Amino acid sequence: MNAESANDADSTPGTNDTNSTPRHARSVRRGGAALAALLLAGLTGLTAAPAAQGAEGAKGAGTADGRPAAVAPHSARGALLDITPVADLSRAEVAAFLKKGEFGTETVRYGVRAYRLTYRTVDTQGRPTTATGLFVLPKTERHRALGLVSDAHGTMVHRDYAPSVTEDFGRLIPYLHAAAGKAVAAPDYLGLGKGPGVHPYMDARSAVTASEDMLRASRTAAHREGRTLSEDLYLTGFSQGGQVTMALAREAKRGLAGFTVRAVAPVSGPYDLSGEEMPALFDGRVNDTSAVFYLSYFLVAQNRLHSIYKDPSDVFRAPYADRVEQLFDSHHSEEEVLPALPKTLKELLTPAFYERTQHPTGGLKEALAANDGFCDWKPAAPVRLYAARGDTDVPIQNARSCAATLATHGVRAPVLDQGGVPHMESLGKAAPKIARWFATAGS
Fold first, then answer.
1. pTM here?
2. What sign does the dihedral 332-45-205-306 (CA atoms) show?
3. Do residues 60 and 129 share a domain?
4. How many independent structural domains does the chain possess?
5. How far apart are CA 302 and CA 366, in angstroms?
6. 316 and 434 housed in the same domain
7. pLDDT tens-digit profile of 11-38?
8. Range of 325's domain?
9. Mean pLDDT of the residues in the chain
């Protein structure tokens, strides 16, 4: 292992809108909580609803040089349907954007061009649908083959917070890695960005298919822009995206769109829902605001897949039972959702369901099991697990549990403790270190 520093190592084995401050940098801490918790935090923050990106081309617009956008003539998964330029930043503009997001800028070497890709994928039932994602290219020599970083974002409730739509928190990591010299594929997931339907929050299976199909679309988009991607793939993601990263990495054993995974570096992910994250919601390790927000989101979204309840009143107390499903429709922002929810889980849940969460059964048990176990395999590529002991959204025990599980397969995945910082800050501290590691790992 090429260690970051002695202080980082845990003992566990094994559009040009650069004046728009990233939501991460101005997120509101309500009730003392760093909103990015539960069954996967990564909340973009509590601010005004996303502004429209007026500088973007209309849907179906051409590429930056005015040529028609690529349109897929067939229905194959990952087929590119549309490519729309959304940003063109100089090196100095990228550095300024990252600095506003409280990210280090020492790895910034290039300017970037970003595009929204619309591509074919499948929904939670395996039926054809479409999704969108952000594809970012560094302004390097056009003959140079680029390694590809797949970046999985954290929890978002409003579809317009997605990386391909709003130049905000969701673009910090894509811009960071592209400015360091790699191409970046950042899927919006199903039901976010410009994709149809409602987001199936915490459904790792559909997040993986959307992410893998984004890789296919990215290869086509790179070719369309006169660039070439190498076979080298680097996986990262934050919070909910940390779980997605490990789930996507596991798919590498059967191949990932022709790419070879070189390094895996998730940040503050809830890898152990049943053993660590769910208990932490109730024992005080996760702050109350985050626990209420994320458990509400999880139950509503997972009920569409696993039949946790027949009527919201089976789970939620009045008056929340009458409003909770509408709040998580991909069209409400966090500042609209939070005031409509109670302050504690005991105020949110019926006594019977509160008791059930202590010993999950039925659809709840199925939902947790379906989204657990992504550390229980043997990766071929090196894995580093970034986390923070000060995180009260996704406690560091999730990373330690993942490392211990990987160790049973003979894999040493170090837990790199970013210190006594809250959830969102763990990403700001870890991301530049990951960019430096990706610059040397495996290629």
1. 0.85
2. negative
3. yes
4. 2
5. 10
6. no
7. 333 344 333 333 433 333 233 333 333 3
8. 273-370
9. 86
